[in-house]
Batch of 2 targets.
Target 1
Amino acid sequence: MGLELYLDLLSQPCRAVYIFAKKNDIPFELRTVELLKGQHHSDAFAQVNPLRKVPALKDGDFTLAESVAILLYLSRKYKAPDHWYPQDLQARARVDEYLAWQHTALRSSCTRAMWQKVAPETLASTLAELDWCLQLLEDKFLKDEDFLAGPHISMADLVAITELMHPVSAGCQVFESRPKLAAWRQRVEAAVGKDLFQEAHEVVMKAKDLPPADTAMKEKLKPLIQVLLH
Ligand SMILES: N[C@@H](CCC(=O)N[C@@H](CS)C(=O)NCC(=O)O)C(=O)O
């Protein structure tokens, strides 16, 4: 069996991996794991990723979790064009810097903002935190360059754009109020290709039309929200 990617395109890290693989013509079998159906808790999926999270990769007998590790594995194995993860020491360090930063900053505040749609008590402070992260994204990473880690698209851009392309970010008008980020988004979309960009985000953009969670669903999600908020 060749390369298998276990994904749900509702998930930001899954969309980053999906775009990367498709854009680089990496042949893979898509194994859809529907989070909303709890398929990530199945015993069969635990064989692939004992952490029971998507994305996950299986390449023969080798299995791998964590989107950043998966992106790096794919780029090394399939020798993706240099701009994704440059050989140059300092250009690579710029990409590494973003990939390290985003876990506890942009990713963390976007995730919490999303869940606070379900449990709105602490929304204001999370939105302030998200705003601060967006400011840093502009001032520290994008600066006056075309992309987050320099003049060419890299993994850093994929990880960031897939984070910001979801209904909550759209609801927070991330791009409307930040023309610099809006222009960057257009460049990323053009570099990835409009069709692939839209294909990858189709499911998550439709999610904004879902009705708000009812009380029973909120109760069910509470333990998960507690973990995510702390
Ligand atoms: N740090 C991980 C995060 C993976 C992750 O949290 N995946 C979520 C979807 S975005 C998931 O599978 N959640 C299921 C759960 O936690 O039960 C990565 O970048 O791959």
Target 2
Amino acid sequence: MRIGFIGAGSMVAAIVRGAVAAGRRGSDFLFTDAHGVHAPALAKEVGGEVARSNGSLAHRVDLLFLGVKPHVQYTVIERIAHIVRERPEMCVVSLAAGRTLDTILQDFGAAVPLIRVMPNVNAQIGQSMSGICAVNASEEQICAVEDLMNTVGRSVRIQEKDFPIFSALAGCSPAWVFQIIETLARAGVKHGLSKDAAVAVVTQALFGSASLVADAHSRGLVPAQLIDQVTSPGGTTIAGLLAAESHGLSNALVAAVDAAVKRDAELS
Ligand SMILES: NC(=O)c1ccc[n+]([C@@H]2O[C@H](COP(=O)([O-])OP(=O)(O)OC[C@H]3O[C@@H](n4cnc5c(N)ncnc54)[C@H](OP(=O)(O)O)[C@@H]3O)[C@@H](O)[C@H]2O)c1
């Protein structure tokens, strides 16, 4: 299966590197970009090929990834729509945040096979949580995209109506976690640790905690049960937890999700 990528920026590079590391043949990949720097570099790195133009790429591939920024996507589609319409066996894959299946189909002016993927920044280290939904695509095409996305983390099929909440929980939450790590590390500095040591301590603590939740979840346990396990009566953890709650920890996180979902609706 030949896979083409229009755009060779950070997300496409993460997906392609993950795929090649998982044993996919780089020679199956074709690339284009806007300035002739990133596509040749990525093609050289993985043994792929640079296509002459977006149109030439659209003539030659079975899966066509639109890896450009959302505001550029319409312009790119406008120039290749006639080629895509003539090749109903080809499936288009959009990585663009906030662009719905309906909007993209309108841009193509036809019911082309289309898959929408929402990866997250952790794809760079093979730890994405990616959401996938599709219209007009075959099961084989959806599985091909799922297999590719699973080389850079995990993926789940979701209904498109759930994309806004998925995007908040999986797409936006990494930035919120970065802020939590930064803040806890600053608290460590306040109490005498170096920033470097504090970041290392907090990062490993959160990394281990997320892994423990994942392990517990696979055994049918929920995070609240883990909280009960670590909050000894009269201890430091319950004192800290209740102080955080009285300062609005849970409310702040729910407000962050609400704001992201609201903003997604405004942008769509
Ligand atoms: N990065 C993330 O964490 C993340 C997370 C979720 C979803 N996404 C989605 O993934 C997509 C790509 O994001 P990104 O962060 O990888 O962006 P990026 O690093 O800015 O890459 C965009 C790529 O598009 C290329 N491009 C622009 N106009 C083009 C054109 N007319 N023809 C061909 N290529 C063109 C650029 O070429 P040059 O290299 O020559 O400039 C660049 O390689 C976006 O739709 C974004 O919403 C990204």
